[in-house]
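Quick question, first post here. What does this chain look like in 3D?
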Amino acid sequence: MRATSSTLDNNRIKLVVEVDDAEMNEALDAAAATLAQQVSVKGFRKGKVPKQVLIANIGGAAVLRSEAIRESLPDFYARAISETMVDPIGQPDVTITAGEDEGVLVFEADVEIRPEVTIAGYDALRVTIPSPVVGDDEIEAQINRFRETDAVLEDVDRPIIGGDLVNMDIRAEQTGSDADPLEMSDFMYTVGSGSIAPEVDELILGLRAGEELVVTANVSGGQNIVYTMQLKQVKERILPELTDEWVEENTEWPTVDEMRDAVLTQMSKMKVVEAQMSQRDAVLVALGDLVTDDVVPDVLVEAEANDRMHDLGHRLAQQQMNLEQFLQATGQTPDQLLSAVRADAQRAVKIDLALRALVKAEGLEANEQEIEEELVTTAEAMSLASNTLHDNLYKSGRVVAFEAEVAKIKANKWLSEHVTFVDHLGIVIDRELLREDQSAEIDE
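> Answer (accepted):
Ran it through. Tokens below.
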């Protein structure tokens, strides 16, 4: 086979492919073997019909050649992709220009390729992730959770503050609905919990027992619920005094200082793990945001969205659910689901394009040794020989895609070493903290 490529307008290329006689003969034999399993010829068992007899019974050699071309053209095209190392992203427009009846088969394929984008500012990215550093207020909050197990409630006659418990009668009515309102008496609400609606925690502050609070809250689907609350009683949690005696009697530690040190150690490990877990996704989203929407091909987004919908359907089938049940459980309409899936697909495509752009900008293309090492690793995971996997990639036109994945692994490593990580206050995070492995110690 001989394949060449040339650049066209609008991010397209043209492949010109010549299939030699030896390859065409293999295609003819393969087509004959397939037809022999399908065609009944008197005096012969299926699959045992001699080639010349088969040709005579299907209408001649031209019919066999036509079937061989039809069956083998996708394979010829895939191998041409591997030969030319182009990166197509859509279905090709194929035209046979010679050899349809006899001689050397020649065809052209016009196909859209993946665009190359630029990502200005990638080398100065500041990415926000949870801080791995434990603040004094966080330590005190955790210690107070221990104290709350031994807290007592006392009635108070003052304006409501955060953390108070309010006994109330509550009525919830959906606007524009014929359904009966929901009513509950003596409902105990913790101020700041957000268990009714976010607006309640803000508007209840400063009120007193005996007053009424009416809150209109928006819920999914654009509906509103009106909550009417009769505030009957306000209680305050009184925490026990934090002493060595209380700590020894109620916790696993003998003193306040040892309790505080243990809490700091454990929370530090957990916060480092939390920061590490969010690190990769946050970096990729920030990098993808450097790609503008106008350069993202619709064909890539549609393919990614279709893959995600297929995966969702497979997962639902494993859980013995269908799509309608899933929509009901999540409170979504089909349009809302498709919109969310497409938005995720758009983000994923932008990240992919950005990583490829980073590879080119920083010269992170995979070398032969790196490709071979990843080939061996992937083949082992698939229980294949590495040469078998290589042949499969070549025949399916996936060589370029595989090498790109190896290069993107290098790009991810580059990002983890060069991006500046900051917490929600914009304070730079010590990179060494993000390299520590805390997961095993937390499990102990």
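The mean pLDDT is 92.
The first strand starts at residue 2 and ends at 7.
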